[in-house]
Amino acid sequence: MRSSIAATVSFILSLLTVSQLMTTANATTILACGSGKKKKCGSNDLLLDLPPKTPEGFSVRCCSETQFNRSEKKVKYGCDVWAGSKDKNGQCFGYGTIEDAEKFCQDAGARLCTCTELVEKCAKGTGCGLNKEFVYCTV
């Protein structure tokens, strides 16, 4: 099942045009539902391009191949990454730009989660009430 989810995400991403994706200096970024379940985010889509939701931007979930502060490993979903939503002091990111989100994760000792990691529920339930929010992710 895990490989079929990854294949579906890859297919969806292949349908997006370059103009629908936001390119930063180090990654192409779109949004994914924080829980990995489209109905939780009030949408029929698990993945979105970047139409601005608020002037403040979107929130973030962070992932790493190694444990970082306040992170969890969702073994029951078959995930092999650690995921978290809070900084070293237990604070949530809030909303901001993609650059702010990347810095937040970097400061936590992690990186933005990939869209596949989010869709596969690797960051589900890691705090900050983001199961019902679209968050930044990388391809």
Search tags:
about 140 residues, alpha+beta, 4-stranded antiparallel sheet, 9 strands, about 20% helix
Give a verbal description of the structure.
The protein has 139 residues and is an alpha+beta fold. The protein has three helices and nine strands, in the order αβββββββαβαβ. It has helices at residues 2-15, 98-107, 115-119; strands at 22-23, 28-33, 47-48, 59-60, 62-64, 72-73, 82-84, 111-112, 134-138. Strands 1, 2, 3, 4 and 9 form a five-stranded mixed beta sheet that branches. A hairpin with a 4-residue loop joins β1 and β2 (28-33). The longest helix is centred in the N-terminal third of the chain and has 14 residues, at 2-15. The radius of gyration is 14 Å and the shape is globular. Residues 13-28 have low confidence and may be disordered.
